[in-house]
Amino acid sequence: MRVLADGAPVTVPRGPARDAARDELLNPAYHRHDPSLVQRAEAWLDEQIGRLFGKVGESVAGSGTGVVLALLLVAVVVAAVWWRLGAPRREARTGAALFALSTSKTAGSRM
Predict the structure, then answer these.
(1) Does the structure show a pLDDT above 90 at 55?
(2) How far apart are the first and last CA of the chain?
(3) How confident is residue 82, by pLDDT bands cut at 50, 70 and 90?
(4) pLDDT for 92-103, tens place per residue?
(5) What is this structure's pTM?
(6) What span, in angstroms and rounded, lies between the C-alpha atoms of 52 and 80?
(7) Rounded Cα–Cα distance for residues 39 and 45 (Å)
(8) In a 10 Å sphere around its CB, with 0-12 CB exposed, 13-18 middle and 19+ buried, how is residue 66 labelled?
C-alpha cells in the first residue's frame, strides 16, 4: 500500500482509479451546460473569421496584398449572399398574383 505526501493511504490501483474517474466524468450532470454542436460550430467559425480578419488587418498595414485579400473576401461574401437570395428585383409582387389561378380547379380534377 502506498501513502500520499499528506499521509492518506492509496488503496485503489492506477488503472481502476482512472476508469472510475472517467465513468464519473461521463455523468450527464457535468455536461448539461456544455454548448450544443451548433453553438460549438458557430464559435469555431467566428474564431476562424476573426483570425482571417486579423491576418488581413496585419497585411493591410504593410502592403497592397492585404487590400486585395480584403476586397476578395468582401466579393466572396457578396457573391454568397447573391447566390443564396437571388438577384434583386425591381417589381413588387402582390399576394393576389400569387394566388391567382389561370383555370379553376375542382375536387374531381387532377393536378
Answers:
(1) no
(2) 83
(3) confident
(4) 666 666 666 556
(5) 0.37
(6) 17
(7) 10
(8) middle
